[in-house]
Amino acid sequence: MDKQFENYTDLTIFFDESGKTKTDKIQLMGGLSLPSRIYFSNQFLSLHRLNESYRYHWSEYKGDYKQREGILLLFDIASSLAPFGQLNIIRYSRQNLIIQEKKFSTFDPDKKGNEIMTNMLCTKLPERIMYGLLRGYDPSSPIRSTLYIEHANEYVSLNLAESMKLQLNIHALYRGEPFYVHECGYRKKGEEIGVELTDILLGIVRTILENPDCESRKKREQVKLIVELLRTEKLQPFLNRLRLFELMSSSDLREIDIKASVKMFIVKNYEIYFD
């Protein structure tokens, strides 16, 4: 290995997305970066064992006691990890991308607009998120990273893990950034608690941004759980380490302050919050 990386710091980064169905109003992709030395330390052995007892998937949560217990316990343990981590999320509009894809198809003789849009969503945006979590470190403390992507057929079919590792290392070399992607792979549900934590965080942020009416039991229970995490200040450590961006039609990223959305969420649900 190059001498530049003899005194490296290991980072473990987890990637997931939220809001993939056609009925979802908000679509998010995000990555959570944690120092490997802390994440895998003996202090957090109980965190890694949670997958043995609980199943984590925000979109499935409807108030089930066992799931609620698991999520609360997850934040009880993981909140002390948050100050050492970084959570980057990109909000995008699938509908806007479909409009762009249709415009592209008007001058595309092979009508491959949809294929290009899928490739952008499944490769370019994840790569952009990961790069944002890896860039900007001091050259005196270079980064060696391991990336875990939640397993999804569309990612596997596009060979995302291998292509992302290659492209990020090309970026590092081209831009002179002191990081190296050592490993990039997929993790299925229940295999890596960091992936489950990322899933829950993305689902919570999406629900806060959506600020839904509690017409269904599912939405009502999700809102109640978020309110409880806010009231007990278990969620704030992660929100304090969050950078939220919106993908504009020009492909630029505009940063959004999550604090305003959290405030409006509490206002709408003040009766639950102050109960």
Our measurement of the CA-to-CA distance between the termini, rounded to an integer number of angstroms, reads 57 Å
Q: Secondary-structure element sequence?
A: EEHHHEHHEHHEHHHEEHH
What structural category arises from helix and sheet content? alpha/beta
Beta-strand residue percentage? 15-25%
Low-pLDDT runs of 5+ residues are: none
Shape: globular
Q: Would you report the number of β strands?
A: 7
> Approximately how much helix is present in the residues?
40-55%
Total domain count: 1
Please list the strands of the largest sheet in the order they lie side by side. 5-4-1-2-3-6-7
- Biggest sheet record: 7 strands, mixed
* Average pLDDT metric: 91
The number of helical segments is 12
Overall radius of gyration: 19 Å
